[in-house]
UniProtKB/TrEMBL annotation:
Domain of life: Bacteria
GTPase HflX N-terminal domain ranges (all copies): 30-114
Protein name: GTPase HflX
Family matches, as Pfam families: GTP-bdg_M (PF16360), GTP-bdg_N (PF13167)
Record PANTHER family: GTP-BINDING PROTEIN 6-RELATED (PTHR10229:SF0), GTP-BINDING PROTEIN HFLX (PTHR10229)
InterPro entries hit by this protein: GTP-bd_M, GTPase_HflX, GTPase_HflX_N, GTPase_HflX_N_sf
Domain GTP-binding protein middle: residue ranges: 116-151
Amino acid sequence: MIVFERPDAGETAVLVHVDFHDEQKREDPGEFLELVRSAGAEPATLLTASRHRPDSRTFIGSGKLEELRALLAAHEAELVIFNHSLSPSQERNVEQELKCRVLDRTGLILDIFAQRARTHEGKLQVELAQLEYMSTRLVRGWTHLERQKAG
C-alpha cells in the first residue's frame, strides 16, 4: 500500500507558475499543465507571477498569496500546485495561510509515479522516494511529544 495516495476523484486545483528572470530557474507552463492532468487533478486556473527571486516565506509574496486565496474561493478548489520546488517551510507557510493542501513540482511527479507503478518493486521504490521527500517536511511535526527537561 502506498502511504500518500490521492483521492479517486480528480481534485480541483489552482496552478501557480512564477517566471524568474534567471534562465536556469524557468519552467515550462505547458509541460506543467500536462503533468497536472497526468496526475488526475482538474486544473481550474493558472496564476502567474514574475519575480527576481522567490519570497523566502511563501515563495510568491503576500500580494499573490491573497490573489491565490481569492482564486481558491472562486473556483472552490481544494489543492494548490506550484510549478517549482518549494522548501518545506514555504510549503507549510502557504498551507497554513490558505488552509488547503499544497503540492510542489517534485511532489506532483512523485504522485504520478505512485499512480503508475505496477510491479511490487516499483511500488516500493516510489514509496521510499515519497517517504524520503516527506521526511524533510515532517520536521517539528511531533515536537509536542518531546519530554521537558528536568532540573
